[in-house]
Structures
1.
Amino acid sequence: MSRQKHNPAKAIQELQFFGEFGGVNPSISDSATYTFLKAKTMLDTFEGNADGCYLYSRHTSPSNHYLSSALAKIENTESANVAASGMGAITATILQLINAREHIVASRTIYGGTYAFLKNWLPKFDIETSFVDITDLNKVEAAIKPNTKIIYTETLSNPLLEVSDIENLSKIAQKHGIKLVVDNTFTPLIFTPANMGADVVVHSLTKFINGANDTVGGVVCSSNDFINQLKDVNDGSSMLLGPVMDSLRAAQILKNLRTLPIRMIQHSKNAQYLAEHMEQDGIKVKYPGLQSHPQHKLFTKLMNPEFGYSGMITLDLKTAEMANEFMERLQNKNVGYLAVSLGFYRTLFNAPGKGTSSEIPEDERMAMGLSDGLVRMSIGLDFDIEDVYHKMKKTLEETGYFKTDLQTN
Ligand SMILES: *Cc1c(COP(=O)(O)O)cnc(C)c1O
């Protein structure tokens, strides 16, 4: 369909925003409220009938509007609305689409915070979620009930790196008249879920899109209609719950967005190099750019090919102790940081089993293959990746990895 024509990197290249004094960057709007020359225009703005007028920055600010419109272009949606965090975007989206006593079908391997929101928080309002293996389309369809309103998934899942078949999930959603919400945080530019039928695309901007780990941020990309619903002064979740991004941050993120295409290409190139060399050396590694990844073909079919297979790699060291030793040694060698989060210019690693995915009960984690020794690595923009590989392999040796039967089982 339009996947061939829409190029998200070109969309970034073509952004043209002038500052108030002809600056090459748009001016930052340093105001919470805005004046009107005529009282009537204020009223019209309240009612949503005065395009281009700003009312109050919890609704929209010029700086947030610039960033939102840039992200809408990248995701090829009519509109977008930035939020103070990824969770601010995700929770507002879900709460806008669901009512009490309705039901959600969600991938069982999603970001821990989203999982906790669906599993522990929404039941307060009698909203239940069925968690399914999202790679099994029959199981997804079988989980749909008469009161299901949302299918929720991540393009590349956190932390298991499972790939969602957005095209077919959207067909299932359409058939049942429900909305498909996709978190594209791990794969900006690589996937354009809206081109494959996703109704709403959300991101944590905290990760690859901002890329500097100096702020949290989020965005919802969707139709004009849905974004206007979110911002409605009477019943919009974004407007009323108030997870608004600060204008200064929006301006910063917009500047970082300009380098996203070259960063994604480099993250992917480095991760592909490491994954291939690890596999050749008998290290049990999971990366969607490897033929051995269960959804390698699906990823290849759905991707925008110029950006590679993303910067995320997982290694299974089986026990938490071994994972911890490996990560501490890596940090001591300055290969990267033992830290949660991802999409940073340096490599970050953590063991999500007992960390960011600890919201998921142990028996469920085991069932989905999320062992305590799983190490998730977000590969950085390193210039000398060969050197990084030698250090990683040496560290695995020192940790005793090759002495065990880890590589073979
Ligand atoms: C980090 C993350 C979130 C949450 O975003 P915040 O900016 O931390 O609120 C949501 N989804 C995914 C996939 C993430 O990695």
Note: The two ends are 42 Å apart (CA to CA).
2.
Amino acid sequence: MDGAVDLSPRRLDILVDETGDEDSDSAWSEATCGGRLTIDLGAIVRNYRALTPRASGARVAAVVKADAYGLGAGRVAPMLAAAGCDTFFVAQVQEGIALRRDLPMSRILVLNGAAPGAEAACLVHRLEPVLNGWSAFEAWSRATRIAGFRGPCAIQFDTGMARFGFGFALADAGRLAARIARTDHMTVGLVMSHLACADTPEDPTNPAQRDAMTALRPIFPAAAFSLAASSGIFLGQSYHLDLVRPGAALYGVAPVPGEANPMCPVVRLESQVVQVRTVPGGAGIGYGHAARAPGPMRLATLAVGYADGLPRSLSGRGSAWLDGLRLPVVGRVSMDSIVVDVSRAPEGAVAHGDFLDLIGPANGIDGVGREAGTIGYEVLTSLGRRYVRRYLA
Ligand SMILES: *Cc1c(COP(=O)(O)O)cnc(C)c1O
């Protein structure tokens, strides 16, 4: 058979020996995917430890919703538990059920609460739904009574975000406190609220929400109070209350936009070079010829695209990096690839199979968010499933 390729097992063994590092599964698998994502678990723990003294004595919980902002709750949460974190927040009951397998002992709260019918799942998996309103409260009260469960519940008040929680008029709060006192099986363990404008320190909404929480204190004297997420921790001691709930700062996102980031970087994303080519001036580049070469240009095609969570808004705006050298994205982000201008890189410095940084020391999560016209949170939680993931301890 003319031109047929010999793919017999014996011949493939020889190929693996010649092209791959047979001793290293990871080297082999990294060559088979478009990007590699390195997640520094040690940096997450350092960030957790760095937030503790900033919280002026408040307990520091960890928010691990959305799979720990895309970084892998099953890896992140046990590390934080080993570092002393005993309280975890997820958004959804299903996330709590998955997390319970990794955290047999920790307290797990569900920010969105339990939908009608999900109360039993919460009880079975020892999840605490945050009770955001009367109907959720009554359903939880009934489910816990039937199950013979006695214990604390978590209540959220809407102190000014119009998203989750009981109205914070003191009369409503008093009515709720009286209602709970009439049950013989429930107490209030946590009273929480969420800041709408914490990333804008001078916004007067911040002190207004804090003062609303302070006014609720005497109504729930035995409860722990919680208001601050990552940015709120940096608003100062009066926002810390008893428990703070950082998410983003643990994962290296800057808690105060526009200021130097005190958190350790956690994520590095590198993309593999598929091809390097030189095009003549006038060449149309990528879909729609959204870019045209102004003169001869050396281009590298990288094997990640919007299917990997790279925002399409990086078209013509994003960057890859060769150490500190910026390699601008040219033309549109495709589903599985982008094209970057490597004309300024030394000849031969970018070659087929090399990895270039997309998120890294030269440009972190927040920088990529800015380029994409979004925030670091969205870049993180969009990180795709096709990357080879490496966890550093
Ligand atoms: C997501 C979330 C947090 C964590 O917010 P970060 O800004 O990521 O620290 C805390 N509390 C609530 C209610 C949230 O929804």
Note: Residues 55-251 form a domain with the TIM Barrel fold (CATH 3.20.20.10).
3.
Amino acid sequence: MSIAENVAAIRAKMDEAALRCGRDPKDILLCAATKMNGAEAVRQAIAAGVDCCGENRVQELTQKLSENAYEGAPVHFIGHLQTNKVRQVVGKVSLIHSVDSLRLAAAIDKEAGRQGIVQDVLLEVNVAGEASKGGLSEEALWQLLPEISTFSHIRVLGLMAIPPVCENPGDNDKFFQKMCRIAVDITAKKYDNVCVNILSMGMSGDYEAAIKSGSTMIRVGTAIFGMRDYTKAHQP
Ligand SMILES: *Cc1c(COP(=O)(O)O)cnc(C)c1O
């Protein structure tokens, strides 16, 4: 199947999943996870109507920006971001999904201040408590929120999560639902510069379940572009 056919098939499933639980399909955005796919594949995905592109690695982002690969769609940063690389990302992407420490938030705030902009971000939650993954524990999230709300060059628009790879449909429902509960609790606290309009969750294997549990942005790679060829991966 072509990228265009894959995107059309995903859209149809997204719409169905939304309507099945009484949601408006327009409230759920499709972010193409473009890692390890080149500018031409990215252009095809944008032509097929994805809402935005999500890049994982700073090097790939910089390369594809220089090739004007994202023309026609916003680009987001969805991978782990090292503090020493914020300058290459802040102001270049419309949303950073992966803020997972006060140190990183402070570095983004400082760089955005230097550029005279406000950078939109999501806070990444390690919702399944996996030692192998980044993201804030729920406890760390609650510690970070009052601090990040004092930063004037960061605006928090929501939360992101990468739950475990799911073996059976429904495996991750409890994690998606937990994210939803956390979002409601944050909204109730009314922090400055913090709202939770975006819940970035759901990938190729579980996006329909994520939509059922309140996701407003799914990040899909494999189901759009096919299997990634890791033998060609650049070592960081
Ligand atoms: C690669 C990636 C995705 C997409 O994963 P697929 O299973 O290929 O759909 C989503 N989010 C992040 C952060 C990723 O790195």
Note: The radius of gyration is 17 Å.
4.
Amino acid sequence: MSHHMDWEEFRRNGYRMIDELIEYHTTIEDRPVLSRTQPGEVRSALPSEAPVEGESFDRIMEDVRNIVYPGLTHWQSPGFFAYFPANTSGPSILGELLSAGLGVQGMLWQTSPACTELEAHVLDWLVDMLGLPAVFRSDGPGGGVIQDSASSACLCALIAARHRMVQENDIRLPQLVAYCSEHAHSSVEKALRIAGIPAANLRKVPADDTYAMRADVFSATVTADISAGYVPFFVCATIGTTSSHAIDPVASITEVAAHHGLWVHVDAAMAGTAALCPEFRYIHDGLAGVDSYCFNPHKWMFTNFDCDCFYVSDRSALVRSLSILPEYLRNTASESGSVIDYRDWQVPLGRRFRALKLWFVIRHYGVSGLQFHIREHMRLARIFASELEKLPRFEIVAPHPLNLVCFRHTSGDETNRLLEQRIAEEGRYYLTHTLLDGAYVLRLSVGQTYTEERHIRSFIKDLVTIEAKLHSG
Ligand SMILES: *Cc1c(COP(=O)(O)O)cnc(C)c1O
């Protein structure tokens, strides 16, 4: 029988683990970005039963290197241009380690006051850092909370909206209708399903030629739904859609929503970080009247997954929809009403000390350091776009105000599909696609912590070479 790891053994292995991570990150460019593992390959390398006797740390680490690493897609590679970034950084990794090491549970203020207060405080900092409405600050009627993901933020917003509408009126769930643009994230539909509202009651409002929601069509749809006996209750506007980074007209949407009593949730999961820089803060225009907002430091703010910052302008609406108080959770701090109990702001009861890594990141970089790196990513995306425009058979297909460039080869979907596949096979870079106006479009998303200009320039060269090979058969 193996004993607990004593603290001397922990010290030895702990230092080695840090060395291991340094080795991983400093050699990451030698690995194919997209994992080449076949389905089932990882599992077939693992024993079919758990070990009866404990094993040495060395043996475990050997399997990490031989079995786990080949099965990884390297999100932290500077050549990772796929989907969206899920970047991390030294201070984030260390903050996460500290959180695991302290092992606290922050479900109530009382179960670790620092866990709650640091979180509320850092989320207040971010209100100022991103130029968000002051009503989101925790010293007013609103407040912020860390959720695991933008999907959970959307779900909580939708549950609060449903509660507000159903509490106040005699309404059945199938009457409720929600709205988002045709380019909104699938998490809106998922939230609706979880909330017991038919998915058919989600109106996917058409977009204009910049792929942003048409507020006039939204308004007309709401009016038509009301005439048909439906009850509009929720709209999700997106700042930076996943496909193309389109920015919905939040102010116009909010105006329509306010007129009819809809809850407005704003999903800025990836793009929100841009507002750290004053010159990009315009993306948050029109947020003044919204009910909730979220963005993901775990995408583009050097904070490892999971960390979504979710804000509400009226925390009582959220808390009313999610709070229950069994006897075993009763305590005087909560009942005095003077503290935040974050369990009432989310689906699960328990919660990790996620604010630590965010606090570490903000303190390590400082506002100006974060601004510098975000501007650098924007600059790299602009370099890519301007180099691409010089290539004869490629075109840019959507506005690219931030760090995502959508482009395609002019000879059709099949060529673009092949390009995507060949780039991944070569292994140095990895990008993914979307559909815009029915066409197969490649997306270059810049946001990994260590992506530099040389990676962008060498990717352009690769693209040219791969394209030439495709054309020569
Ligand atoms: C990535 C993304 C999401 C989903 O984010 P999770 O945190 O993984 O749930 C939702 N909306 C937008 C706009 C995104 O870019």
Note: The chain has a mean pLDDT of 96.
